[in-house]
Structures are given as C-alpha cells and as structure tokens.
Amino acid sequence: MPESTLSRTGATESRIGQGTPSPQVAQESLSKIQSRSARIGIIGMGYVGLPLALLFSDQKFQVTGFDIDREKVKVLSEGGSYIYRILPAEIQAARAQGFRATDDYAQVREMDVLIICVPTPLNEYREPDLSYIVGTAQAIAPHVHAGQLIVLESTTYPGTTEEVLVPILEKNPAGVKAARDGAAGAGNFYVAFSPEREDPGRTDIARPDIPKVVGGLDAIAGNLASALYNSIFRRVVRVSKPAAAEMTKLLENIYRCVNIALVNELKLLCLRMGIDIWEVIEAAKTKPFGFQAFYPGPGLGGHCIPLDPFYLSWKAREYDFQTRFIELAGEINTGMPYHAVRAVGSALNRHKKALNGSRVLVLGVAYKKDIDDLRESPALTIIELLQKEGAQVAYHDPYFPRVGHGRHYKLNMERAALDTVGQYDCVLIVTDHSDYDYARIVREAKLVVDTRNATKGIASPKIVHC
Ligand SMILES: NC(=O)c1ccc[n+]([C@@H]2O[C@H](COP(=O)([O-])OP(=O)(O)OC[C@H]3O[C@@H](n4cnc5c(N)ncnc54)[C@H](O)[C@@H]3O)[C@@H](O)[C@H]2O)c1
C-alpha cells in the first residue's frame, strides 16, 4: 500500500490538500491502519473470522476476537483451536502478538476497526435470516465512535449494509452518523462491505493472494477499508458502493450453484445414456478457453453455495423479479440426495436385497472432502432419507467421531469403525476424503455406491457410480 491520505473524491491521494480535504479523524484512522497501530476487533470467531484474525495478527496488528459463544472464547483464551485446519500453535503465536478473545462487547469502544463475520443462514421458509447481523449491530451501536471503520463481511443480499446495518449503528448514544458522500462531518464513523472468499480446505492459493473486493459507503470509507485490506491482501478491488460488493459475492456463488446444477443434471442424463460424465468433464477441461470444470455430487453443502443464492431470490421479489436460474439450480441440486438414495435402493435390488432392513455405511459426512464442516451437508439428508426407508445406517468420517443435531437434523450417531466395511450390505461414498484407502474399501465391501468418483481407476463389479 503506497503512503496516502484520504479525500472525498474517492482517489487515494499522495498528500493532504488535493481534492476536498477529509476530516482529521479519518486521516488519523488511516495513519493508524498504515502504522499497524489500529486496534482491530473481529466479530464472529468462526471459519471466516478466526483465520482473518490470524492474518491481521500476523501483520502485527492488535486483534480482539469477539464471540457470543463462550466455549470458543475459552478455547482461544487457552491457546487452543476448534477448527481442524488451524493449529493451536497458530493461536498461541497470535496470542504472543496480543490476540485476545472475548464476549465482552464493551471492548468494542476501544477498537479502531470492526469487521463483522457472523452467520447469515436461511430461516425455515428459506428466507434470509439476518438476526445475527442485527444482533451484532445492536450490540456494537452503544460503543460506536467517530473515526471507527466498520466492515461487514457476512454474505448477504445487496442493500443489507445500507438498509439494515447502518440504521442500527446510527442509533448510537454519541450521535455519530455513518459518513456518506457529500454529507459527512467531523463526527462520522465509516462503513464498508467486503465479501469473504474463503474456500475451506483449498491449499493451492495462499489467502493473501485472493483479491479482496471492497465497497465503501462513501469514498473515505472505501479508502480506509482498502488500506486495511491492503495490509494483508496483495490486491484490493474497489467497487462503487456496498451493494455492488454484496452483489459481487452473490454472483460468484450463484455462478457456482448454477454450474454445479448443470453438471448434476447432465450426470443424470449420462447415467441413462451409459456415458461417464467424469470422463466427459476431464475431456472438456482440456479446452484452453471458455470452459471451467464443475463436478457433480450428492448435493450442495456448506454455509455458502446452498444458501446465498436464495438471499438474492428473496430480495429480487421486492423488485417484482423472478430469479429463474437460481430456482432451477436449487431444484436440481436439492434433488441430488434423493437421487443418491434411489441409487442405493436399485443397487441393492440388483443384489436381491431391499433397502428396508439393509445395513448401509455412509462414508464421509462433511460437506466436502478433507474439511471438518457439516453445515448443510447432503450426507445428513441422505442418512435421514435412508433411515426413513428402513435402512440401518451407520457412518464413518475421520473428522467427526459423533454427529449430533443441528438446525435441520437430529441424528445423534456415533462413528462406526472403518474395519467393519465388509459387514454392510452397501457402502455409500458421500464425501471423498483423501484419508480413505478406496482400493481396500472396494476390496472389503459387498457393494459400493460412489457419488464422487472416488473409486476412479478401480475396476470392480461391486462399484456403482451414481
Ligand atoms: N465458511 C466459509 O467458507 C465462508 C466463505 C465465504 C463467506 N462466508 C460467510 O461468512 C459469514 C460467517 O461464516 P462462518 O463460516 O465464519 O460462520 P461460523 O458459524 O463458522 O462463525 C460465525 C461465528 O459468529 C458467532 N456469532 C454469532 N452471533 C454473534 C454475535 N452477535 N456476536 C459475536 N459473535 C457472534 C458465532 O458464535 C460463530 O462463532 C457468513 O455470512 C458466511 O456466509 C463463509
């Protein structure tokens, strides 16, 4: 980040005095960010917030992690970690650098920067549930002060920052208002939206190499947020306003959701036509332009792809607009766990067995390979569907010794032993963790239904691809 000052023109300037001068308080905030003396509070110590805290801490910022989950605060305070890929040693290194975790919102007052990374799920009617953002904003508001930069990172529909977050923050006892272009005074705080682009489990791109999109409520907020993220990311991409940054994130996730639905649908056709979709994708991938590979599977999982598109569908209704691609993709992707269960039923049928009463081992319950995240995992739906059909279901996953209950499931199962594979009528591969020895599993199992092409290269009549 080049040495710079701030201006209301939107440009990052080389010295004070160009354009309309920005308030002293903003200049001070910028200096603190550039000198790494800004105190950063990150709200929500989950899969997004905790790694972000470590990145800032690594760059010598004083970071405080806020979370309402006391257990997480306790673990972090003891130098431990509850996310598999984050080692306790990393937490301890951050603590040596001053990183602290707390559930005490009064400390928000001491922060120069606040970054909000709280969940944005859907409610039972598949509508946006903004209760975490609203709750966070209400908790922050009493402590908001002039010069503070507040960035929302939670994925949400365009308009959330301006229409939901800012009005709550502005109900602060100090009477400070969010800076807006052409209407700012000395007593402002600054607001921006910057979406998270974390891809859990991915090791081929270092986090600082993933460009960071930033949209400020006004030009100064955009400049401050850019300076902040420039200290940890190699490239910051500025867009004109928070809604453009919110929409950018949704476009990225809708693109994935729709393309996954496309290959899922084509997979169903290929199965009927006796064509191997995986072979087709590998061949298509060799085209050096105009094609990006997406892969079929047992259904969407994770906090993002299955949920985020519906944030936009919901908002679009306000504009009398139907997001048909999103709805269609949702319909196809939601049907995939049902397809996997039907495939188990017909594979057993070929062995003259009924699903009702058969013993089925589900291999892998995380929503994707090599991660410890169960959220929205299709495995949970598949297990419930199999149980409804009368199957006796067990599961194995190296990351989960137990699967309890969540917002949409109630399983309360203990992990089965992997050396009992041969005792099941069918092994259903739902998540293709790298830890598994697939050749051995196929050798020992009576029947394997593979939703992920995990058994690629293994020739056996026991394998059914679905
Ligand atoms: N996980 C991902 O890969 C990913 C990727 C991109 C974007 N996102 C988005 O980032 C946001 C956060 O996702 P996540 O995966 O980190 O969620 P998470 O559930 O792992 O973590 C959220 C944390 O926020 C805490 N929290 C909830 N309300 C709070 C409050 N009022 N004050 C303080 N803490 C509070 C929770 O206790 C939890 O620890 C979501 O909007 C998600 O869509 C996630």
How does this structure look, described?
The chain has 466 residues and is an alpha/beta fold. It contains 13 helices and 16 strands. Strands 1, 2, 3, 4, 5, 6, 7, 8 and 9 form a nine-stranded mixed sheet that branches. Helix 5 (131-140) runs parallel beside helix 6 (160-169) and helix 8 packs parallel to helix 11 (324-350). The radius of gyration is 25 Å and the shape is elongated. The termini are far apart. Bound molecules: nicotinamide-adenine-dinucleotide. Nicotinamide-adenine-dinucleotide is lined by residues 43-49, 66-69, 72, 117-120, 132, 135-136, 139, 153-155, 196, 198, 200, 303-304.
Short description:
This protein is an alpha/beta fold. It has helices spanning 24-34, 49-58, 70-77, 88-96, 131-140, 160-169, 219-230, 242-273, 277-284, 308-317, 324-350, 378-388, 438-444, and strands at residues 39-43, 62-66, 100-102, 113-116, 149-152, 177-178, 188-193, 212-216, 236-239, 359-363, 392-396, 402-405, 410-414, 426-429, 448-450, 463-465.
Keywords:
466 residues, alpha/beta, 9-stranded mixed sheet, 5-stranded parallel sheet, 13 helices, 14% strand, elongated, binds nicotinamide-adenine-dinucleotide
Distance between the termini: 50 Å
Count of individual beta strands: 16
Name the poorly predicted regions. 1-5, 8-20
Report the principal-axis shape: elongated
Give the helix level as a range of percent.
Answer: 25-40%
**Percentage of residues in DSSP E strands:** 5-15%
What integer is the average pLDDT?
93
- Tell me the number of helical segments per DSSP (H or I, 4 or more residues long): 13
